[in-house]
């Protein structure tokens, strides 16, 4: 079967869950080959990629690949596409993943599909557009299909692959070195999973009332091993950092479980979370539109309901 | 500094958004057209940079005739002039076709800085800025929540999942902005009146050396095979909190094996 390139996402050498999802998806359509770009590759990473089906692991360990914004990774992938003629290239539909896909599409004169929530025979992608209102099948008809797949849309399943390592060297053009990263600033977010990757997301909105009160949301998230999200009302008010905003001008999440506390569910918010598998809403207002989406809704004050829920979860663990 | 800010007319999220049954492209008649929200932040940032460093702000849009409403709004906010790329041949262009056509216009009109919103609220592909940078061979400074220009160099804060990256480059460059960056101004009455007198140049594809074989639905690199309205979610259970709302929710979570 033909090779499918999967761009590895990793944090300090640890392979992210979305990459395991992509390898699982690639296995159903061809022979997965993982592509590791940048430093940090280890035996642990190799073992993980092989465990989830990577037959080949292409490794380019140069520091240069991460010293500039996006362009070097797209260039490295374009060189691999030219050398290996893969059946498709899969990347995670993260902000950076989509940008890499976009540049790769231009470089290889190939079509690109962003934010796929599924991928079938002939690389026909499922997409959920207009805030989850319309389901679309789409496909690439020119070049190598490049598909950015939304995290959490495939359940990762191990199935051993050979994991044969192959070092590749990448010659970067001067153009790829245009935007230099001079400093990386990490903001404390504790041990919580990343928002777009998390299986469970607990979000707070206007009803939370203050930055201090977000502790209530965080405690529930921590009891569930969840990520914390926020509505635009909450981030605009400065109660929670902007990068945790879920919705049209923030992140799109597609977790197994989404708990919306004190969020009315404006269409702009729904656009970012509507494809969650299970939705729980807690809101004082019985007319809040979020209840139209909820699999389970509690009409009540989140300041009473959420702490009780947190205690119950701790008790039952 | 010669700043070009790209704006897109999109269907209002608050109205029903549809695809056309005939050619599976966006149904522009079904919903009200508004300026893509993130592009308003791009316009604001362009105006701020002009106020600090001088120069000129040009609005660039690609879209059918009624996209002029979008141009007017940006001009009313304070942009100096506009270029409207409008040609029936562009209908149905995907991101690759759009980025190609816009890059051709940008090469023609020239720029020190191109600014656009990080994504559109309709297609939400989030690829256009990266594609433009690729096509123009200029640095990509995307997902910015802060932009600073000093002489011929530019620094941004690029939003990441762990915080942000400080990124620097030499002009010319392509920048995309996130909503956190600023608070877009409202057009004043004076601004609205002044906008009516500002020059708007309309270009057809031939005016910008755009190859008709690279744009439009027929040449698109990807296609919509079919589509359908998402089935409505089944009505859930709604309970009123009588002092046991949290416990009830925990029961539900247990029944779904989340705990």
Quick summary:
Chain A is 27% helix and 27% strand. Chain A has 317 residues and is an alpha/beta fold. Chain A is elongated, with a radius of gyration of 21 Å.
Number of strand elements of chain A: 17
* Extended strand count of chain B: 13
Taking the sheet with the most strands of chain A, its summary is: 9 strands, mixed
CATH class of the largest domain in chain A: Alpha Beta
User: What's the alpha carbon Rg of chain A, rounded to whole Å?
Assistant: 21 Å
As for the CATH topology of the largest domain in chain A, it is Rossmann fold
Helix residue percentage of chain B: 25-40%
**Element-by-element helix/strand order of chain B:** EEEHEHEHEHEEEEHEEEH
Oligomer description: heterodimer
How do the helices and strands line up, and which of them pair or pack?
The complex is a heterodimer of chains A (317) and B (259).
Chain A: E1 3-7, E2 10-11, E3 14-15, H1 17-27, E4 31-37, H2 43-51, E5 56-60, H3 71-84, E6 88-92, H4 95-108, E7 112-120, E8 124-129, E9 134-140, E10 146-149, E11 164-167, E12 180-186, E13 200-204, H5 214-224, E14 227-230, H6 232-236, E15 257-261, H7 267-270, E16 278-283, H8 290-293, E17 296-299, H9 302-316
Parallel strand pairs in A: 1-4, 1-6, 4-5, 5-11, 6-10, 7-10, 13-14, 13-15, 15-16, 16-17
Antiparallel strand pairs in A: 2-3, 7-8, 8-9
Chain B: E1 2-7, E2 9-11, E3 33-35, H1 37-53, E4 56-62, H2 68-77, E5 81-85, H3 95-109, E6 113-117, H4 128-136, E7 140-150, E8 153-160, E9 163-170, E10 173-177, H5 189-195, E11 200-203, E12 222-229, E13 237-240, H6 245-255
InterPro entries (chain A): DHS-like_NAD/FAD-binding_dom, ETF_a/b_N, ETF_a/FixB, ETF_asu_C, ETF_asu_C_CS, Rossmann-like_a/b/a_fold
Function (chain A): The electron transfer flavoprotein serves as a specific electron acceptor for other dehydrogenases. It transfers the electrons to the main respiratory chain via ETF-ubiquinone oxidoreductase (ETF dehydrogenase).
Protein name (chain A): Electron transfer flavoprotein subunit alpha/FixB family protein
């Amino acid at each position: 079967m033909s090779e499918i390139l999967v761009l590895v996402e990793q944090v300090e050498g640890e392979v992210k869950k979305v990459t395991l999802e992509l390898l699982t998806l690639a296995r159903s359509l061809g022979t997965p080959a993982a592509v590791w770009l940048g430093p940090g590759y280890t035996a642990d990473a190799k073992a993980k990629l092989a465990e989830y089906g990577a037959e080949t692991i292409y490794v380019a360990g140069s520091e240069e690949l991460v010293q500039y914004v996006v362009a070097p990774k797209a260039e490295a992938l374009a060189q691999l596409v030219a050398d290996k003629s893969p059946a498709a290239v899969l990347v995670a539909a993260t902000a950076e993943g989509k940008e890499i896909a976009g540049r790769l599409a231009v470089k290889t004169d190939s079509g690109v599909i962003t934010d796929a929530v599924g991928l079938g025979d002939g690389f026909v992608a499922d997409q959920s557009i207009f805030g989850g209102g319309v389901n679309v099948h789409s496909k690439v008809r020119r070049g190598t299909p490049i598909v950015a797949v939304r995290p959490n849309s495939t359940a990762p399943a191990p199935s051993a692959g050979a994991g044969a390592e192959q070092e590749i060297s990448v010659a970067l053009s001067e153009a790829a070195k245009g935007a230099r990263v001079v400093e990386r600033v990490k903001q404390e977010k504790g041990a919580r999973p990343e928002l777009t990757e998390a299986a469970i997301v607990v979000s707070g909105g206007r009803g939370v009332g203050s930055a201090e009160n977000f502790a209530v949301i965080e405690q529930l998230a921590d009891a569930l091993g969840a990520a914390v999200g926020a509505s635009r009302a909450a981030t605009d008010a400065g109660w929670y950092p902007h990068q945790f905003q879920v919705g049209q001008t923030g992140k799109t999440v597609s977790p197994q479980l989404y708990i919306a506390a004190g969020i009315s569910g404006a269409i702009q918010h729904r656009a970012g979370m509507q494809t969650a598998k299970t939705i729980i809403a807690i809101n004082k207002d019985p007319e809040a539109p979020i209840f139209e989406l909820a699999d389970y809704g509690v009409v009540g004050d989140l300041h009473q309901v959420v702490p009780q829920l947190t205690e119950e979860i701790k008790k039952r663990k | 500094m010669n700043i070009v800010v790209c704006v897109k007319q999109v269907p209002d999220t608050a109205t029903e958004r549809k695809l056309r049954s005939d050619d599976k492209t966006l149904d522009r008649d079904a919903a009200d057209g508004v300026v893509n929200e993130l592009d308003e932040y791009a316009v604001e940032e362009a105006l701020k940079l002009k106020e600090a460093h001088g120069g000129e702000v040009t609005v660039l849009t690609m879209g059918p005739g009624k996209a002029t409403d979008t141009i007017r709004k940006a001009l009313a906010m304070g942009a100096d002039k506009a270029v409207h790329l409008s040609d029936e041949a562009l209908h149905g262009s995907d991101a690759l076709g759009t980025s190609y056509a816009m890059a051709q216009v940008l090469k023609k009109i020239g720029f020190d800085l191109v600014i656009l919103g990080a994504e559109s609220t309709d297609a939400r592909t989030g690829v256009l800025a990266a594609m433009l940078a690729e096509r123009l061979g200029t640095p990509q400074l995307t997902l910015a929540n802060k932009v600073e220009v000093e002489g011929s160099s530019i620094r941004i804060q690029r939003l990441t999942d762990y915080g942000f990256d400080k990124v620097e480059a030499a002009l010319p460059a392509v920048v995309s902005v996130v909503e956190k960056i600023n608070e877009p101004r409202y057009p004043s009455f004076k601004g609205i009146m002044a906008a009516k007198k500002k020059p708007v140049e309309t270009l057809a594809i031939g005016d910008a050396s755009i190859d008709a074989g690279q744009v439009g639905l027929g040449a698109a690199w990807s296609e919509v095979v079919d589509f359908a309205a998402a089935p409505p979610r089944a009505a859930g259970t709604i309970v009123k909190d009588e002092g046991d709302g949290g416990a009830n929710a925990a029961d539900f979570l247990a029944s779904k094996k989340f705990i």
